[in-house]
Amino acid sequence: RLRETGRRTLYYQQHFFGFNVAPTSEFPLVYYLADRLKRAQGLGLDNLNTLGGFVSPPIKKRSAMQELYRRFLLNPELDAQELVARVALNLGGSNGGALLLETWKQIHGAFEENHRDVGFGLGTEYASRRTLIRPLVPEMSGLGPGERDWWLDYSFAGHLRFGQAHLFRGEGGRLSEDWYRTNRDRSVRARDVFRQGRSRLRRFLKEQPEAVNSHPYLVSHERQLRFLAHVYATGANLYEGQLILDTYSKKGIEDNLKSEVDNATSRFQSIVEDEISNTQAFIDFLEAGGDIGMVLLPSETTWGFSTNLPDLLRLKIDVMRRYLPETQEVLNRWFNSEY
């Protein structure tokens, strides 16, 4: 209907349901959703017909974001804090619910520090740009067809916009050092808060094994946080690693960079080794069975991965190991160049 609230309704629906934000995973940002629901209610919106939150499609039998929306529909008089508290109690019980609240508050705080930017967790980043499985190598443009086509063919406009030769560069040209550092720091902050939340839940389930059966959401949530920690660990490594490569890809190398090249070489090698370890742990997680916190589609698409994801991650590790010894040569290539 052509009413003043019509455009507002569409605006809020875009925020409740974000396919481009996380096409195959759910982000436990319950306080954001609760606040948006109450804000929409205050505006008198009458078409809140979306499940809401950073989730599409539903990937669990029970989802915190969907439970929150359902609770809002059942008890619209509750304020945002009480909505979240009731969902936590419902999904985790008395003790587990308190732990969920603590975990969600810390996640909320981390993303507040990140200026509410999901960053590397955007589906258009880790899935559609295929950065979750793309190898971090000293010379991306030097990869052969067999070393790149398995991810490039599904990358969002991968064969265009410098997708073959650069992890992040677009048509706008070289990215700034500040851009890399900001995104790296935000990825580290997200990685750490998900790791901490996962560790707390794991300890709780070990100390109270009966909760595994009485409140199975706690198990799936622990695995969801583990998945997100792996994703953001990859993001942190790629941002920092690509910054080093960009710094030493200029034909006019500053003298101070020449004196730091050995440290940069060592740091890049350390980043790649860390990403290899993170990727191997991710593979082990995927192959252990159970909920992985992400939908695997029947076949690969630009918007999501399929059941061959562990095999793609193994290819990533293989390519990174193969090219790691070239780091020193690549970072020194423009020194004393006549061109």
Written account of the structure:
The chain has 339 residues and is mainly alpha-helical. It has twelve helices and no strands. It has helices at 4-16, 30-42, 64-74, 80-113, 123-126, 145-152, 177-207, 211-214, 217-247, 255-287, 309-323, 327-331. α7 (177-207) packs antiparallel against α9, α9 packs antiparallel against α10 (255-287) and α10 (255-287) runs antiparallel to α11 (309-323). The protein is elongated, with a radius of gyration of 22 Å. It starts with a helix and ends in an 8-residue tail after the last helix. Mean pLDDT is 84; it is low at 1-23 and 49-57.
Short descriptors:
elongated, single chain, mainly alpha, 339 residues, 0% strand
How would you summarize this macromolecular structure in one to three sentences?
This protein has 339 residues and is mostly helical.
Number of strands: 0
Looking at the chains present, what oligomeric state does this protein adopt?
single chain
Return Rg in Å: 22 Å
Structural class: mainly alpha
Per DSSP, the total helix count is 12
Provide the low-confidence segments as ranges.
1-23, 49-57
What is the N-to-C succession of helices and strands? HHHHHHHHHHHH
Please report which band the strand proportion falls in: under 5%, 5-15%, 15-25%, 25-35%, 35-45% or over 45%.
under 5%
Could you say which overall geometry the principal axes of the C-alpha atoms support? elongated
Q: Helix amount, in percent? A: 55-70%
Largest sheet data: none
Mean pLDDT: 84
